[in-house]
From TrEMBL:
GO cellular component: mitochondrion
Protein name according to UniProt: Malic enzyme
Organism from which the protein derives: Tetrapyrgos nigripes
Molecular function terms from GO: malate dehydrogenase (decarboxylating) (NAD+) activity; metal ion binding; NAD binding
Stretches for region Disordered: 14-33
Cofactor: how bound: Divalent metal cations. Prefers magnesium or manganese.
InterPro entries to which the protein is assigned, alphabetical: Aminoacid_DH-like_N_sf, Malic_enzyme_CS, Malic_N_dom, Malic_N_dom_sf, Malic_NAD-bd, Malic_OxRdtase, NAD(P)-bd_dom_sf
Domain Malic enzyme NAD-binding: 256-514
Organism superkingdom: Eukaryota
Domain Malic enzyme N-terminal: 65-246
Amino acid sequence: MTIVLTPYWQDGVQKLKSSPRPPPKPAHGLTPPVLDDDVHVTRCLAQLRSKTSGLEKYIYLSMLKHENEEMFYKLCLENMAEFTPIIYTPTVGEACQKWSHIYRRPEGMYISIKDKGKIMSVLKNWPKVNDARISVVTDGSRILGLGDLGVNGMGISIGKLSLYIAGAGIRPSSTIPICLDLGTNTHKYLDDPLYLGARHNRVPEKEMTEFMDEFMHAMSVVYPKLLIQFEDFSTDNAFRYLERYRNQYPLFNDDIQGTGAVVLSGFLNAAKLSSAASGQPLTSHRILFFGAGSAGVGVAMQLMSFFTLQGLSEKEARERIWLVDSQGLVFDARGKLAEHKKYFSRKDYSGPQITDLLDIISYVKPTALLGLSTTPNAFGPSVLQTMAALNPRPIIFSLSNPVHLSECSFTDAVQHTNGTVLFASGSPFPEQRHLGKMLYPGQGNNMYIFPGLGLGAILARAKQVTDSMVEASSLGLADALTADERKDDLLYPRIERIREISAFIAKEVIRAAQKANVDRSTDLRAMSDSELLAFVNSKMWNPTL
Ligand SMILES: NC(=O)C1=CN([C@@H]2O[C@H](COP(=O)(O)OP(=O)(O)OC[C@H]3O[C@@H](n4cnc5c(N)ncnc54)[C@H](O)[C@@H]3O)[C@@H](O)[C@H]2O)C=CC1
Ligand SMILES: CC(=O)C(=O)O
Ligand SMILES: [Mg+2]
């Protein structure tokens, strides 16, 4: 049998004979005399906390997950706020950048362009074929805001699936992290003797599409119950392959749809607070996007429903949104535009190109400024002060990942708006005390959405992931705030409640799938809401330690 759980270029170097899951407990005498699970939990946590760098912590936790999956997830669930920045953004970004250097053992599947023509047989090598329910698939071409990391992108598929397991109780054996190796255009990696991927530039679009067609068909045959999450494809491919396959297979794109949903949710909560302070109606919000890639445009599309839910027409909603890319304001008269920018390109401006963000802000007078640009510190003091001068409670979301690419920090946002800011960021920032009051940053990251969206789609056995299911996940998240969280002006629930939130989102997603008639588990239709919620909770995997 061909083995593909190890990068294929190591074939013959390191053969894996069975599942990558931990082996059964060793026989009596092969462990210390007193190895109490409860005490070992404390020991593992102490070992983790003794590491000084984020990357060391990441490596330690990867080892722990491999050695003792139950222990890893127990600790993760009990310490979500501490673990997420390690297994996910920001540290997962550094782990991906150094993946070929820190690589220790096989995890996930690597499917290479060299496998074209035999992808199905490769997929069958996965040890738990019948269990497969959810796969996160990346081609590594735009990992967080870090660019084309090639096969090093495997870390993001693994990280997202760890959050599925911890955050939504997906059974670990049902998850398949996949990294497609279609080459990389990053020369640093091509020149690195330790690089784990194919040593050539990315293959042309035609060859990639042929590969993707075969891959998607093979996935649907080998794993008939699988939901696919596309992750961190470069913007052109993100839109292309979402459109190409979304009506054919159960799949969604996390960067376009998951991000859209999480930002809509935080925006709904922020806009209410902002409008309460300004006395202006919700329909009067004006949203400026700094960054017009897959994430920026995905969020802009989802935010259309913020306005249409308030009764505006599609045209009126679109007029509340402005895009900025690396060349400045996006408008028709500027000339040729990438396809994904056209819908939001302004028709009402035809003057000279405005490039400076401050000039764009004075022209647009936004109530909300959303950064998805991978440009660190783009929201400097004068931008923040201008937003505060325009709005009693400005909405500033600096959503680029990881932390060092964020458009501004929470500290700066608080300081330069005199604490009035309604803030969310893609990666976590610490809370701030301002004039004696504790202020909390929101984490506007799709990690709040995809676990519940995925769980709902899996339990409904959805044929497709419809826009209505994505919107339901977003509204579900917005509604999940408790009175206590609202009292602290939180835009997102506390991450410690992720299981409860995911269950609620999953229930809403199942209902939306039923309404759209894409559910195959039609027996769930007869359940009342409370029965459905109980059913969702009963399906969540829990570590048994
Ligand atoms: N918070 C979250 O949940 C998520 C955050 N992201 C983050 O969003 C960022 C962008 O992702 P994509 O849209 O896929 O990337 P992308 O590379 O396709 O888009 C970046 C956009 O920013 C614009 N840009 C770059 N430099 C600029 C500058 N100096 N001034 C103005 N605009 C500039 C580009 O023209 C492009 O429109 C990444 O950092 C990613 O990590 C992505 C998905 C989810
Ligand atoms: C969070 C995420 O999906 C990204 O930054 O790409
Ligand atoms: Mg992503």
